[in-house]
Structure formats: C-alpha cells, structure tokens
Amino acid sequence: MTLSRIDLFVVVGYFVVLTLFGAVVRRTRGFDDFAVAKRSVPVLMVFASLCAAYIGPGYSLGFTAKAFGAGFAFLPAWFCFSLQTCVVGIWLAPRLRSQVGAHTLGGVMMNAYGPTAKVLTGIVSVGLCVGLAGVLARAGGTILAGAIGVSLPIAIFLITGVGVIYTLTGGLKSVVATEGLQFSVVLISMGAVIAFAGHRIASPQNLDQLAISLTSSTWKSTSVFEFVGLMLLFFAGEMLIPPYANRALAAESEGASGRGFVMAGIFSLFWFAMMATAGIQAREILGSTSNPDGVLIQLAHSVLPSGLLGLFLVALAAIVMSTQESLLNAASVCLTRDLMSSRWPDRRQLAVARTSTVAFALCATWFGLRAPSILTGLLIAYSMWAPTILPALVWWLVGNRKGEFNGVLSIVSGGLVSTSILIFHVASGNPAVAIVAGLLASISGGLVGSRVMRTAVQP
C-alpha cells in the first residue's frame, strides 16, 4: 500500500499529537489516580472509552471480514454483545462501582470470597490482559506496517511504545482521555469510508440483492448449535473483563457507571451494522477474490481521498494501541493490588504499577511477533475468562451469600474444564464447546461448594 505525502504527514502528526495529549495533559497524582482515575470519570467518557475499547480490530476488521462472506447473517450473534453490555450497565456496573475500596475485580472477589479468590482472579486477569495485549500488538502493528512501509517488528514496537509513554505518565486517566479522542476520530473516518463507498456503487439494488444472497446462503449452511454457540460467546465472553470492569470502578458515581455501559451497548448496535454494511460494500466494489481479513483497509484505500485515508489508517492503528494500553494498565494494577501487598505505601504501589507496565509491554511485544490470529486469540480469551471468573463474580454482585469455599471451587472448576478442552482441541470445530462446558463446571462447582458450606455449619 502506497500512501501520499499528505497521508504520511497525517500519520506522523496524529501520533505526535496523541503522545503529547496523553503524556503532557494528563499526569498521574498517586496510585489511586493511576488505577481508577480517582473514581472521577464522567458518564460520557465512560461511554467513549468503552466504545473505543471494543471497536478495535476484532469488532472492525474481523466483523467486516465476516460480513464480506456472510452478509448480515451474524448480526444477531454480534448483537448479543450489545445486550450483554446493556445488562452489565443495568445490573452489574453500578454494583461494581459501589465497591469503594476495590481497585480491581480481585478486590471485589476478596470482599466476596476471601484472599484465595483474590489471588486466583489476579492471576487470570494478568494472564488474560497480557495475552490479549500481545494479540492486539500484532493486529495494530500489521495495520501500521502496511500504512507507513516499515517492518512488522518496528511497527509493533511503535504501537506499544507510544502507548506505554502516556500510560506511564497518566495511568487510566490518560488511557480514557486518549480513547475518547480516538473514538471520535475512528467514528468520523469510518463514516467517511461507508459514505464514499456508497457513492462509488452505481446500483444500490445490486447491493441489496448481494446482501440478501450472502445472508441467506450463510444461514442455510450454519447449524443451529453453531449459531447459538456464537451468541453465547458474544454474550458472555467479554463480560466484565478487567479493562471494562476498571471503567465501572473509575466512574464518578454508580449512575454514571451504569449509564455509560448502557449507552455503549446501544451504540454497538449501530457500529456492528456499519461494519456489516462496509463488508458487503467491499464485496461489491473489490470482488469476491479479495482477502477477507484485509477488506476494510482495502476498501478505505480504494474509496478515500488523500488525507482521509491517512487519518483512517492511523486512527485504526491508534485505537488498537489504546485498547492494548488499557489492557496493560489493567494488568499492572491487578498485579499490584491482587498479587502483591495492598498495604504498601502509595508511592511504592505506583512505582510497582509503572514498572510492571513496562515489563508487560515488553512481554506483549514479544508475544505480538508470535501471536495467533486476532480471532483465535479472542476466542481463547473468551473461553478462559467467562468460565473461570464470571459465574462467581455475578453470583456475588446480584446479592447472593458469600462464602470462600464455593467461590474458589467455582473458579478452579471452570478454569480446569475450559483449559482442558482448549488444550486437547475438543472444541476445535466450535469454540463455544469450551465456554459452555467451562460455565457448567463453574456453576456446578459453586453449587457444590455452597452445599458443602451449608452442611458444615449445620449442628
């Protein structure tokens, strides 16, 4: 891909502005500021940062690629993510925000199930965040390498390095602020892609017929079990992963936390529809022989004028970077609060969080050069997170009685079953098998633990 001088100027200028905005304008004043932005994030910033976090490569490049071959067939499954985000906003996010002393999900699990559950949650959270950060480093590096013509290792280093600069100086506050900026830029540039592509298509009727044909053929070839499995993956897979939970904990009030999630869930309906539309437009303009994984970038390169193309590419790469740095920030906070002493002085906790951010960034850079595809990485993360942490966390948040044994047994049971299935590739035909089996094991473990505890306290 060859960019004009105007596009290259936009790319370089955007990264300079982003770095200055994140590093200079937003400075951290203590660990509480670094971890949860002193719990002062307003509702609009909760909304914008959540949107920026989920419209990264998986929900833009990946969804456009799926629509390129399947039309609108998978929209109902994608909308399950929208439903999940609204459910979290209505019932769970305000309850998370009410946990005033908690900086992480591990802190919430400590209140619910004790120190063992806290440590287990911390281990899973750190592993999940660093692994996903590596996958995103590769995705963002691939975009940037194609945009400015550098090698993939250099692009991954730039993507990770620039984000680490403003994460170190500003913590979550800086991440949220830059995500809000990038959300606006990506939304404008993506709207431009669809508008210019629509202008390029001579006959809208042909586009409608293509969408109907792709959608109906995909529905006929997809089993009900596979489709239900995808719906479950999108509903439960990302529910309250650490970066999302941190937004709930950092909101200025319980109401702001809940409304931010609900607004982000409603917006995702429109975003997924936009991605599906872009995929079908790409099929009409580029033809069926194009590589599905790169059709969004190919479409933008085909229809956008100089200047707008550079803005689109750099915004897409940068929003990947923000999602990555959000994960690194969450990992460092989880390490500091869940796996080390929360009684350390504030200055020492801040130093540990900053040091671990750099260490995790190096790990993510290394892993980014060896990471699987973005879709594979996401499915592995979904299959690990939801069965391990989600049942015990939701059980506590909706008001059920706490107990150390049932929480720990739920976490261990779900984690062992889902990990075993992934290792032995039993779910290779349908990744939903791992998450379904893991969730059932986690729920069963929690119920058995509750029964044992009730039996133990009876005279």
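Above is the first protein from milestone M3; the second protein from the same milestone is given next.
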Amino acid sequence: MQIQTSHSTLNLGLTVERLLEELEDKFPPQAPHPKEELNTIMYQAGQRSIVEWINKRINDEDLS
C-alpha cells in the first residue's frame, strides 16, 4: 500500500508554493525572439513547461 504525502509535508526547507514562486521568477514565460537559435527556444520552453506542470499539479490538488 502506498502512503500519500501532502505537498505541504515535504521536507524541502520551503513550501511547494514558495518553490513555485521562485521557479516563476527564474523561468518566466517569454516570447522567443526571431534571432534566437531553435535549440535555445526549445531549452527555454522545456524549463517553462516544468513550472507550468508544477503549477497545474498544485491547482489540481487544491480542487480535489
């Protein structure tokens, strides 16, 4: 049987909400510049997708 852990009980030294806030500051949504290399655009999109995934997980859990 798996034990469920609430995100508020994780021992990270900070809350998940605070971590998300820091990630939002570090990796904000940004429009790509036409002169940027495709690999740079894809890398930044990957960073941002993690932030969006965490945000969705928190919001989905709050709705449950």
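Note on the second protein: The helical segments are 16-26, 38-63.
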